[in-house]
Structure prediction request, 404 residues.
Amino acid sequence: MIDIDKIRADFPILNEKVNGKPLVYLDNAATSQTPIQVINSIVDYYSKINSNIHRGVHTLSQKATDAYEQARIKVQKHFNAKNNYEIILTAGTTHSINIVATGFTSILKKDDEIIVSALEHHSNIVPWQMLCERTGAILKVIPMNEEGELLMNEYNNLLSEKTKLVFVNHVSNALGTINPIEEIIKKAHNVGAAVLIDGAQSCPHIKPDVQKLDVDFYVASAHKLCGPTGVGMLYGKEEWLNKLPPYQGGGEMIKEVTFEKTTYADLPHKFEAGTPNIAGGIAFGTALDYMNEIGFNNIAAYENELLTYATTKLLEIEGLKIYGTSKNKTSVISFNIGSIHPYDIGSIIDKLGIAVRTGHHCAQPIMDFYKIPGTVRASFSFYNTKKEIELLVEALKRAKTMLS
Ligand SMILES: *Cc1c(COP(=O)(O)O)cnc(C)c1O
Prediction:
């Protein structure tokens, strides 16, 4: 059960006014809000133990190192990785994907094939296109249907012994579709391909188990999980992380440096060049603690209730069309009203204090599929309420009257 009043009291920003109106924050798929516990852990770090990690013998440095490594273990436990050194702390999902995409440059050969899905975020398309340019590998795309679901038969047809890598998001940020990643992973492994799952959009709702999934790489961002921006994780199976070369050269990632030859540090430090976002990493751990205390089953059940309520209420608005109608979806609703431009709707309801996303949501190929320039996207988190959904619906009705 969700104690909504208690939860809302943890989020100072929910008391803010925007344009003179109480904030109604429905842009959670872009970034989540931050509870006071997470904010405090950042303040505490800088107030009490700020120091560089893994280097100093002095007390503060040891305390900072301990706190940072503790956070890594929290991430490891949360994702159920076998070893803590299989968790690389990064600057976020995009950074994590680039570590893998760059690493595969030395592994792929001309005419090898990479499969991505039609539902990808740009950060899960562009790095692979760049990898194909460097290696001569070929990018193939799993198509989707009107409901916003991947066509699994087409996926079967794309797979062959040429397939070396498969990259799919667990949940589409533009439509909310939950993809059948267990099946995607199993089938890729049958032809000997590695799989990277982009969990940026699923992790706020679903707790993944990377060992059970048997996935090769899994990536996520802290800022969609009630944590700070500019922090994230890359899980990789030990054998894969050992196979990939380092992404950046610098301090922290070396064992020994001479001008003739440098040897690299062991995992995870091989991929963690330079001084990281130490406070951010620690706060990521605090954010996972916070969400686990509420419980992901409770979060998913409550958000589903919000999704069902909002879907029903929104469809009462004449001319409103929802994009992404898979039965298996998270609390994201992408829609348009008649031929009104999404930007116009977003601007008007912003004046009423309501924050939604408008545009292509970093997923232009999906918008091209539906032949639309973009959508309005409302995305709900466990701290939203039915009352806020009612305010959204009222505001949309007003915007519609003004714009048609
Ligand atoms: C947000 C998001 C990303 C990008 O995450 P960053 O934190 O901006 O690196 C990638 N993929 C999906 C599905 C997302 O929702």
Q: What stands out?
A: The longest helix spans residues 59-79.
